[in-house]
Amino acid sequence: MKATVHVMLKPGVLDPQGEAVRHALGALGFAGVASVRQGKVIELDLSGEDRAAAEDAVRKMCEKLLANTVIETYHIEIA
Amino acid sequence: MKATVHVMLKPGVLDPQGEAVRHALGALGFAGVASVRQGKVIELDLSGEDRAAAEDAVRKMCEKLLANTVIETYHIEIA
User: Fold this and answer.
1) Which of A58, B9, B22, B43 pairs as cysteine with A37 (C-beta 3.0–4.6 A)?
2) Of 3.30.1280.10, 3.50.50.60, 3.40.605.10, 3.40.50.10860, which CATH number belongs to B2-78?
């Protein structure tokens, strides 16, 4: 079973990486980019066939390791 | 208009960051994680209403800056 986790900084949290990308895009001549936010995507290959159990396990992984829930939000997709 | 770009390492390209996450998950007691790949997600706020033009612009941004197409693949979503 495959799980995909998206981790993004919460709105309002300063994103220097995204800001650097926005600046670089402007320098390369791309106009009209109002803002850029950069996050992480983590793809996990899980053993087992129980979808609910997998989602539960991935949620625990996010809370413990994959995301810093003080400043980040996460979103889980099980495929 | 909002564009989301997913950038992942191509299959076969070594992913030490993903490997480190897999190892850490194992150390935390999460069994059954066969493999982990980590990538980037970039959210862009674009001005303009033309969907096709936006997708075209984002594709050029990916080729020029956002992805290293030698080792990475990208996927664009326009919302």
Assistant:
1) B43
2) 3.30.1280.10
* Best residue in B10, B37, B43 for a mutation probing chain A (most A CBs within 10 Å): B43
The residue extents of the domains of chain A are 2-78
Decide if B18 contacts B36 (C-beta within 8 A). Answer: yes
Inspect the interface and report whether the beta carbons of B30 and A6 lie closer than 8 Å.
Answer: no
pTM as predicted: 0.92
Residues of chain A with pLDDT under 50: none
Task: Mean pLDDT check: name the lowest of A6-10, A47-51, B58-62, B74-78.
Answer: A47-51
- Token pair of A49, please? 């066939």
Contact at CB, A64 and B28, closer than 8 angstroms: yes
Closest-CA residue to A5 (of B72, B33, B29): B33
Across the range B48-62, mean pLDDT stands at 94
Residues of A with CB below 8 A from B34's CB? 45-47
